[in-house]
Amino acid sequence: MMIKIENLSKRFGEKIAVKNLSLEIKKGEIFAFLGPNGAGKTTTIKSLVGLLQPTSGKLTVCGYDMVSQTIEAKKCLAYVPDQPYLYDKLTGREFIKFVGAMHGIDEKEMNREVERLIDLFELKDYVDELTENYSHGMKQRVVFSSALIHKPQVLIVDEPMVGLDPRSAVIVKNIFQEQAKTGAVFMSTHSLDVAEQTATRIGIFNRGELIVLGTLAELREKLQREARLEEIFLELTAEEEEKEEEEVAVE
Question: Strand 64-65 vs strand 56-61: parallel, antiparallel, or unpaired?
Answer without folding.
Answer: antiparallel
